[in-house]
Design brief:
This protein is of the alpha/beta class. It has 13 helices and 17 strands. The protein folds into three domains: about 130 residues, Rossmann fold (3-Layer(aba) Sandwich); about 170 residues, Dihydrodipicolinate Reductase, domain 2 (2-Layer Sandwich), CATH 3.30.360; about 90 residues, Alpha-Beta Plaits (2-Layer Sandwich). Strand 4, helix 3 and strand 5 form a beta-alpha-beta unit. The structure holds NADP nicotinamide-adenine-dinucleotide phosphate (NAP).
Length: about 450
């Protein structure tokens, strides 16, 4: 049978790993695909760069858009990255030239996935992106194919390995955020500019894609409520432990009465939940659906080899002639996303307050909570020993950390109560507020 001819744009971490994978498993991969799969042309920025991969017999093309239109390729593999720029122009060029596209580019898909899928489907082509969400974990296939007969109620997971690594180290070694971030950078887990990871945007891109497939809605990354992990302190992790929880950065999308709620934020998860046991750079995604119940998939969420493994699985589908709609149903039929605002979110909350140690403060805080219909499940006060050299008169009033867990309430109510408590002058700084996620 004729070989499937690939044009590979991007020879960095993932692109180079894909070249190695095809080198190493070429015959076996061909047997599985029912035909040989060959890289016939490549492009990257710097032709002279030493990459430790064998490109003999492979044609070099000077720019990705030219490669995308190359008459000798069947599939354009985009492993450059970035939304709205060169990578997207090349993907559009490839689709218009009648080439299938395989990509790992979550930023591009979160911004333009629907449009690109419509172009692909109008031309009878495949736009495949298993590698764009959670590295080696086959969550796109699971949602799109395995769970095709189900209605999904909630999908959630640890979608950013850098954040999970930082939180795991902070908890295990009682280290502060900055120290763990530097360590993540030293080990190559975080970029030199790590904002995208630690502020939650990388997880949000992945969640936007998963939400669309899980709920059959148009991608709406703008609708996601996003909070990162930069405000988490060792005190929060210690309190979580005492109260029966672990702290994870989660991406969560669920069906609610008011629409689809999409959020990325640190969450307290019960220690007994599967997600609580996921440590380090590992990712995990859980899907709750009506017939299949709960599925949890975990594994390496990033890295060249893990990501190339998912790219190869998309290439195999194309080689075998397997065609599945990009988002699990025709892209043109995806419903407008009905967003549920974060203010309507209902759940329990953890609060860390720095309370001035003076008479009436506690009673006043409890009253404000009650005024907003909020019941408290537990209160933990940690008395700090006064600093030996603090002036005698100041000591009794110095702020003390107080940890509260509420029963179910709404985001609107808890925000209003906390703002009132702050205005009352009983707390020394803005409170820490972390949502509790009831997980199985
Ligand atoms: N790394 C991961 O763990 C991971 C995981 C999941 C998804 N992804 C996604 O996979 C994609 C690739 O990521 P990566 O980590 O492999 O990135 P990378 O190591 O930075 O590699 C990017 C590649 O694109 C090439 N490139 C950049 N600008 C170019 C231009 N103007 N013209 C031609 N080539 C250009 C670079 O060329 P030079 O080599 O010549 O500089 C490089 O080979 C991204 O969409 C990323 O989000 C990565």
């Amino acid at each position: 049978m004729e070989a499937l001819r690939l044009g590979l744009a991007g020879l960095g971490t993932v692109g180079a790993a894909l070249v190695r994978l095809l080198d190493q498993h070429g015959d076996d991969f061909a047997a599985r695909c029912g035909r040989p799969v060959r890289i016939v042309a490549v492009t990257a920025r710097d032709r002279a760069k030493v990459r430790g991969i064998d490109l003999s017999g492979v044609r070099w093309v000077d720019d990705p858009e030219t490669l995308a239109r190359d008459p000798e390729i069947d599939v354009f593999v985009e492993l450059i990255g970035g939304a709205g720029g060169l990578a997207e122009r090349a993907v559009r060029a490839a689709l218009h030239a009648g080439k299938h596209v395989v990509t790992a580019n979550k930023a591009m898909l979160a911004a333009s996935g629907q449009d690109l899928a419509e172009i692909a489907e109008a031309h009878g082509l495949t736009l495949a992106f298993e590698a764009a969400v959670a590295g080696a974990i086959p969550i796109v296939k699971t949602l799109r194919e395995t769970l095709a007969g189900n209605s999904v109620n909630r999908i959630y997971g640890i979608l950013n390995g850098t954040c999970n690594y930082i939180l795991t180290r902070m908890e295990a070694e009682e280290l502060d955020f900055d120290t763990c971030l530097r360590e993540a950078q030293r080990l190559g887990y975080a970029e030199a500019d790590p904002a995208f990871d630690i502020e939650g945007y990388d997880a949000a891109h992945k969640l936007a894609i998963l939400t669309s497939i899980a709920f059959g809605t148009q991608i709406d990354a703008e609708a996601i409520y996003v909070e990162g992990i930069t405000s988490i302190t060792p005190a929060d992790l210690e309190a979580a432990d005492e109260l029966g929880y672990r702290l994870k950065l989660l991406g969560i999308a669920s069906r609610t009465e008011t629409g689809i709620e999409q959020r990325v934020h640190p969450a307290m998860v019960p220690k007994s939940s599967t997600i609580a046991s996921i440590d380090g750079v590992t990712n995990a995604v859980a899907v709750e659906s009506d017939y299949a119940g709960q599925l949890v998939l975990s594994g390496p969420g990033a890295g060249g080899n893990a990501t190339a493994s998912s790219v190869a699985s998309d290439i195999a589908d194309i080689a075998r002639g397997i065609k599945v709609p990009t988002f699990g149903r025709a892209a043109r039929s995806l419903a407008p996303h009905q967003r549920a605002a974060i203010q309507t979110h209902a759940g329990g909350y953890y609060l860390r307050l720095s309370v001035y140690d003076r008479p009436g403060a506690f009673a006043s805080i409890a009253t404000r909570m009650a005024e907003h219909g909020i019941s408290l499940e537990s209160i933990v006060q940690r008395r700090r020993e006064p600093h030996a050299d603090a002036p005698e008169l100041l000591r009794p009033h110095s702020p003390q950390p107080v940890f509260l867990i509420t029963y179910e309430t709404t985001e609107e109510a808890i925000r209003a109560a906390v703002n009132q408590i702050f205005r009352d002058g009983h707390i020394a700084s803005a409170p820490q507020l972390i949502r509790i996620e009831p997980l199985g």
